[in-house]
Amino acid sequence: MKIITLLTDFGSFYPAQMKGVILSRLKDEELTFVDIAHDIPPQDVRAGAFALLSSVRYFPSGTIHIGVVDPGVGTGRLGLVVESGGQLFVGPDNGLLLPAARSLGKPAAYRIAGKFEASNTFHGRDIFAPVAALLAAGQSPSSLGPKVRPKDLDFGEPRRTSNGVEATIIYVDRFGNLILNLRRLPSPELLLKGILLKKVRTYGEARRIEPLITIGSHGFAEIAVNLGSAAEAFCLKVGDRIELEEI
Predict the structure, then answer these.
(1) How confident is the model at residue 182 (pLDDT cuts 50, 70, 90)?
(2) How many separate domains does the chain show?
(3) 127 and 191 together in one domain
(4) How far apart are CA 20 and CA 233, in angstroms?
(5) Are the C-beta atoms of 226 and 207 separated by less than 8 Å?
(6) Are residues 124 and 164 in the same domain?
(7) Are residues 17 and 133 in the same domain?
């Protein structure tokens, strides 16, 4: 059985067309589709990369991941197949695929060089879905085009300040939790905008509407408000740099 995942910023309508293209090309194959997410904020490549990175380690070898958050669709940006850790990634060359692929091993990237009848606005359906079908049918990534050096994306590094640690918000989930590019919490107590963040292992260790900080299931630090929204409480969004003041 072949497993094909989809991650996009398309919402609920367009992914079905991608699945239809794959099913029409693999009529005799047993397929399992897994929708990682289709509610990535529009054109937010960094958020898509984080969601893909947080998911791929739970899939078996042989899984094919289609990731499409593609503000450059229809331009000269390349389409890629990336192979890493026994899994395959298909999508645009804008950094979306690289953090996830790198988390599994040493990525090898190949440019999609074949000719496809493609619209200017929907390469997810017209290029990436057919390529995923070819891979699921047994075609090798190297047969699809030459090896290339892909565009990279990373989440940056936190830095020490005179008062504590400066970090960047790399994702805001639907609960309003703020995920930071920080993988270890400093030992001292932490303030954000002068407000104490309670260090916890679980949200339930904080009182109702109490701000907290913890290491989330994805391995990154996250700031939350128990039964509330940290994004609203602190008026913060993806891309903001914050200082965690140590006391």
Answers:
(1) very high
(2) 2
(3) no
(4) 42
(5) yes
(6) no
(7) yes
pLDDT computed for residue 96 by the predictor: 98
Range of the domain at 210: 159-246
Rounded Cα gap, residues 121 and 98, in angstroms: 23
Q: What is the mean pLDDT of the chain?
A: 96
How far apart CA 195 and CA 71 sit, in angstroms, is: 37
Counts for the chain of helices (H) and strands (E), in that order: 6, 15
If asked whether residues 55 and 108 sit together in one domain, one would say yes
DSSP string over 144-158: GS-EE-PPP------
CA distances from 23 to 20, 37, 132, 143, 188 (A): 5, 20, 11, 22, 54
Same domain, 15 and 135: yes
User: pTM for the whole thing?
Assistant: 0.93
pLDDT band at 1, cuts 50/70/90?
confident
Burial of 88 (0-12, 13-18, 19+ CB in 10 A): buried
The single residue listed with the structure tokens 């200082």 is 243
> Scanning the structure block, which residue is given the tokens 């630090």?
221
Q: Classify residue 148 by burial, with Cβ atoms within 10 Å: 0-12, 13-18, 19+.
A: middle
180 near 221, Cβ under 8 Å?
yes
pLDDT of residue 170: 94
Over residues 183-192, mean pLDDT? 96
Kindly tell me if the per-residue pLDDT of 188 is higher than 90.
yes
Q: What is the pLDDT of residue 27?
A: 85
CATH number at residue 35: 3.40.50.10790
Determine phi and psi for 131, rounding to 5 degrees: -65, -40
